[in-house]
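User:
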Amino acid sequence: MGIKGLQWFVTNICPDACRVVDLRQMAEKHHINHPNGPPVIVVDAMCCVKYWYTPESWVCGGQWLEYLVNLENFIKAFMAAGIKLVFYFDGVVEDKKRDKWIERRLQNNKEIATIFQFIKTHRKQPERGNITIPSALPTFTRYALKLLGQKTVCTLQEADFEVAAYGLQHNCMGILGQDSDYLIYDTCPYFSIEKLRLDRLVTVMYSREDLCHSLGLSLTHLPLFACLLGNDVVPENFLEDFWRKCLATSPHRNNSYSRRINTLLAVANYISKVPCSYDSLKHLEEMLPLGSDKTLLYKGVGSYLLPGQQSPWIPPSFTNCQMFCLQEQTDMCQDKEIFQVAKEQHIQSENYAIFSILSSGEIECSNSLEDECDTEIPGQALIYRPARQHIYSILLESGKGGAYPLVKEWFVYFGNPLQQPELIQPVQPFIPGGTPNLKTLWFAKGPDVEKQRYSTFLACFHLQEGMEELQALEAPVAAFCCLLAYLMMQVSSLSVEDLNAFLALVLCLKGKSAAQLECLQVENIDWDIQTGGEDFSVLLSKEHMCTDHPDDPTHYWKWMKMDKKKRYTFMKKFIKTSSVFQKWCWEGSHQKFIMSLEKSITECCETILQFRFGTVLFGAFYKNVFVKTTSLS
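Assistant: Predicted structure:
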């Protein structure tokens, strides 16, 4: 998460450490020095998501096709320069960073409340500076990058360490991100994603050497410097008295600087006079009020040591392998084979949330764009909880008496103070013949097993009765119908207009290009624009639960084209006049597509919705959608 104030200091106070570089030229030089392979840049993807996600109507969310084009253009720009990219994603929230994660989520809640207040007052979205990234976007980004043929890694710990280690071990050309921790690690060069000009492949390279020269330090001082400023290992509240003492004797105090910047300079001045030795570190630990753990500095400095590196601040016997390798917690999963498969797929970005549940029984979900004042639509965390409970029951073995271990959920929704995890009881779905075990679902073969996987998948949505109809649909259409039926069951306030608008997307997005969707204009925003981003995440976790070799993720990615900006426009127009729907559905070359889908979707939705709601709702749905569209023929 970086060192507070350090990135700003480098950019504004230490301009010599900010070098504008041409990545094409650097790639050519790197290839001369390392001719055995293409130049590689390792990308801290979590730092880059906001750079990639640039829809004009961002408050509507879900412009997936446009986002995919942005990713594709990003990759092509580097490929044209002969540069290979390797993308790293955070795979866990470590315990030591949970408090900071909670603090940020609660702050995000306040920011989202401000966004909705702005929308209600001005009937438009705030400026892009207030953008809120959809909570599931990083998950979808992993699958998009894999779809585009890129190497994608999901970490077993916070990403910055693994990114820095990969860059060092593979002689990478550099790291692309925006995290001041990359100034502390002794690894390959650090490039700014915020300053990147993709059209020219020009950005800023932050120089550790020039930073050290400005501060009067050496590279070996940087890990201790980071710890004494406060980081993920050494809390800032332990350092206040130390900072005051440093400020009192610092020759670099400047009234035009903030207290944080003056503190940064004062700490650097103090460290520059301390001999680089383990004895010096022990003296510092004795001097600082580090609470019950007097080895925090030792651990903090060690956390910046990459494999094969040593530091004069700590003994040569110190090993950082425990920092690099996950301490496998297999209490939740007794089957080593299942655990290993889940771990490998986690690293390769081939499953969603499964490994977290099997390894630690803990899972989290960040903020969604949800209005705390809207009491009609519950938060997505609550909407999808019944589905998650079924997933947990299939993943986790029941103990004596049929009791399951509880799962810790850190899900953000209004009303949840996040003071502690919610303990969620797994619930078995209703499956005739009983719930199959994971070994059967993941490793067994044959048509009967395929049928069992599909029925288990549908059981988590309470959609077993629609199995025959869903199997007759294309996978993307079936996935969409599953989500739509589940939402209609869980959210009583959803109306026929909502249902119509969702189905209109199924019928009308076929063949639409990203450019066409981007040109779609949104009317004044004066009512509900919230829809959780977790829906396809839950779908993915169910798919990964039911097999160790999940179907082509493009089954779901195809429906990432479900542009919510277009859904919002559809819903507005449905309320005004149904004739607009006819125009949308039948413009261009959509007629054949609509006719081919009409019968299968109708039969599927009829079975599910009639079973759950009776004929009244389905009759309204059929009359408002299919009767009106077919009459045009």
